[in-house]
Protein: ROK family protein
Amino acid sequence: MFLKEAVRGHYSRAEMYDELCEVLQKQVERAALHNLNVESIGIAVPGGVVPHNGHFNGAVGGVPFEAGEFVSQTITDALVNRCGMPLLQRVFPVRDAESLMQRIHLDNDARCAARWLITEQGPRWADFVCLFAGTGVGSGLVFDRRVSYGAKFRAGEVGHVDLNMGDELMLGKMALQRRKCSCGTKGYHFESLVGLGGLGHLAMALDHGIQKDIERAYVSDPQRAADLRAELGSEEVSGMILLEVLRRPGLLDLDEFPRSEEDLDEHLQRLMELYGQLFCVGITAILDALDLPYVGLCGTIPEYLHGNQHFQRSFRQHLAGNVMGTIVDPLFGNMREWGWRGAALLPRDPGYYIRRFPGSTRQPFTASERRSATPSSAREQAVHGEERLNEQHSDT
Ligand SMILES: [Zn+2]
Structure:
């Protein structure tokens, strides 16, 4: 929720760091109180990350960081300020602020989610893509049980692949217009087609009138109207309202809706059939090009649409019809659950570690060094994951 608000500009950059570091401070104090040690802090963020210095590379807009921002340094400074070095030295195995910064790890959120799936899904999932779809669209690519970073740490930035070079994209008999993407390009990027704004745009193109009626009925509730503030009218908010209504149809006050319930159902069903098809276009391109037999889906959109039978039927039908030679059974999950576990595993992933500390002779943390302030179930999961990550790298 906090991130969503930050993305929508409801939090300034300074407020975001304040919130984040307040949470971290509480964890540090809690660890000190229980005489526990914390080895590292793992952070998953949307957009591009340069692992070797913890910089955010600013590949996309709409995230609460600036291009080139030294995130791990800012967090270190704030923690030293808030907690004081003596307390930090007690909780972390560090001497000074510099060595604390070495224990703050930052990576792209979709890559973190993919890292967790390597461990959660086991050896069968050797090659796969973990796709995130919400306001933005991104992915983590895994080959031979290793998270791929690419030459410029941008592997998996599938949201900015152009799916149509022409001036018009036809979906059935409907023409979709070019949309401005978070990268600044106006066109048919995968993200601008299937992100929240893309869903809103599709609904408007399908039936502008009924979509407006849905939105008016939705904000007849004063609390919802207040929540949306001045943003009503953007395609992104249209997309978010649709997800809410699709998940809980009873949410819409039908007394405020000037059409029949059948009209509403028909519109939503048609919308989901088309959206399932559109969602599939970009995914099949990735699966086919890279010969991947598995896909994990997370982020606001899959999380809301997981239970929608019309979306599921259309998506799976097009997936079966378009992916060459493989039957792909998509796995739906939760970004928050996958992402934080993958971030917690960062210092234990040799593939990340050699990029964070190029040329270092230090070894990644091992199970025997394990000392963590995380709750035991989470710690067990992270440790279990670490052992699997080490297993897969034991041949290197
Ligand atoms: Zn783009």
User: Anything to note?
Assistant: Residues 367-380, 392-396 have pLDDT under 50 and may be disordered.
